[in-house]
Amino acid sequence: MKKEKLILVTNDDGVEAKGLKSLIETVREFGKVIVVAPEESQSGMSHAITTKLPIRVQTVKKEEGLEIYSCSGTPVDCVKLALNQLLEKKPDMLVSGINHGSNASVSIVYSGTMAAAIEGGINKITSIGFSLLDYSGDADFETAGIYVRRIIKKVFMNGIEEGICLNVNIPVGKENELKGIKVCRQTDGYWQEEFEKRIDPGKREYYWLTGYFNNSEPLADDTDEWALQNKFVSVVPIRIDFTSYSRMKELKKWKF
Amino acid sequence: MKKEKLILVTNDDGVEAKGLKSLIETVREFGKVIVVAPEESQSGMSHAITTKLPIRVQTVKKEEGLEIYSCSGTPVDCVKLALNQLLEKKPDMLVSGINHGSNASVSIVYSGTMAAAIEGGINKITSIGFSLLDYSGDADFETAGIYVRRIIKKVFMNGIEEGICLNVNIPVGKENELKGIKVCRQTDGYWQEEFEKRIDPGKREYYWLTGYFNNSEPLADDTDEWALQNKFVSVVPIRIDFTSYSRMKELKKWKF
Predict the structure, then answer these.
(1) CA torsion angle A255 A256 B1 B3 (round to 10)
(2) Handedness of CA B171, B113, A186, A43 (dihedral sign)
(3) What does the alpha-carbon distance between residue A96 and residue A14 come to, in Å, rounded to a whole number?
(4) Do B208 and A180 touch (CB under 8 A)?
(5) What are the backbone dihedrals phi and psi of residue A112, each rounded to the nearest 5 degrees, phi first?
(6) Is the distance from CB of A8 to CB of A94 less than 8 angstroms?
(7) What integer pLDDT is reported at residue A2 of this predicted model?
(8) Considering only CB atoms, which chain A residues are within 8 Å of B198?
(9) Interface contact flag, A109 B118, Cβ < 8 Å
(10) What pLDDT, on a 0 to 100 scale, did the predictor assign at position A34?
(11) CA B156, B161, B162, B167: dihedral to nearest 10 degrees?
């Protein structure tokens, strides 16, 4: 008999998010599921940790094969708390998402969803972040669920070596509209900010941060943005080690 | 006559931090300096951005060659606001720090100081994060200042290619105690959490997140932790593109 897997689930849209519920449904067939997700949306929190405020945890649900906890902290706090306090053993896999909205290209650095997956990778856990290209709260996760299942199966079958995690983005569409899965690199891009200046009732200036994504390169067919625009699910392997080895060689010639 | 450089300065310890003041002093000799720093400490905020709260900016100082602004947001908000609203042109360099405490090894992912440098890199600006291995508010930045000057000079002389930024960590010590500068890779490591469970006056449980750094590998002499323990200043080139190209090749064989 196969040993049952233990799977840790988190996200950054909060414990009530539809994308989280979809992910839980999908991963339950693989084993025992422990969910530790933020109480409220923590989108854009990146790899932030909470050190100046106390962290609170609440039990949301406990049933056969599924426990759900909410946490007052960030997605990375959720992962740390799960590993350190709530799980009896290291999980076989960490999945994060399904995020409401893209985390392709450079969005990975702002994303709490992907920070949780990276935190898993730092702790040598097989980790995957999933995102659907639909920001709306009532997005349709049906097709996404099919791809999430397929990818998790493959990952359990083949294993991922230490030092990386996966960034999976899924286009919007019915099953027959998507063209399959493509292994990609991160597109070179940036967010073009548009700070909106306003005046409050007390006559003080303030800004709202808004913006839109821009490519810094023409979209080659090995990039995640190309894949997504062409209705492929993109899978980008992300390195936990941020060192640029090629540039290290160069810098050594500088004779500091 | 050489064109005067424009240098953007930020940090995550806040506009009043001693490390920021030391950095400002050092960079003023290179050109015009614009500082946009968080109002208060934003340590551990990583690459977080503020989208659900308004962002406020205050002018702290305006004199010949130096402008200082404080911002209610995160370090990355400071960079975005500077580039989008406060600077007339793209700066020639972004420097972040000097952080009170190490940002070596995996600490880079939690660090607001390094997130600001990475944000600069995303925007194709030559960017460097500086950290001193002393967490105390009244740390002595004298020796650090000497190395900051040396490294900035070298970077202006040689240039850094697009797609990377530098993570510089400086050990504590007098000038004659430090052994020079070493180009390194990021040590494989993690933070071992120790959540401290407490009970509040209302009888509710809460946790404090604390922890300590651990290596996941023996310290080879090409790692930043080795360099720092041996009194070298460590310089790690950090890639903005997080793709693992070697693993991409592997994953393509999976036939998803």
Answers:
(1) 120
(2) positive
(3) 11
(4) no
(5) -70, -35
(6) yes
(7) 60
(8) 54
(9) yes
(10) 98
(11) -70
Question: In chain B, pLDDT over 70 holds for what percent of residues?
Answer: 99
In chain A, where the domains are located: 5-187+220-252
Angle subtended by helix axes A142-158 and A18-28, to nearest 10: 40
Per-residue pLDDT, A1: 47
B56 vs A188, A206, A242: nearest CB: A206
Cα–Cα distance measured from residue B134 to residue B124, given in angstroms and rounded to the nearest whole number? 30
Please tell me the class of the A5-187+220-252 domain. alpha beta
- Residue B115, min C-alpha distance to chain A (Å): 9
Q: Is the separation of the CB atoms in B60 and B33 below 8 Å? A: no
Highest mean pLDDT pick, A45-59, A206-220, B94-108: B94-108
- Hey, what's the torsion of the CAs at B139, B167, A74, A10, to 10 degrees? -150
> What class is the B5-188+218-252 domain?
alpha beta
Closest by Cβ to A55, choosing from B200, B207, B243: B207
Question: pTM surpassing 0.90?
Answer: yes
pLDDT-based confidence at residue B82 (cuts at 50, 70, 90): very high
CB B234 within 8 A of CB B168: yes
Cα–Cα distances in Å, from A231 out to A135, A166, A177, A182, B27? 17, 19, 7, 10, 48
Average pLDDT, chain B: 94
CA distance A154 to chain B (A): 7
Q: Tell me the pairing of strands B164-170 and B127-132.
A: parallel
Cis peptide before B98 (omega within 30 of 0): yes
Above 0.85 for ipTM, yes or no?
yes
Cβ pair A22, A34 in contact under 8 A: no
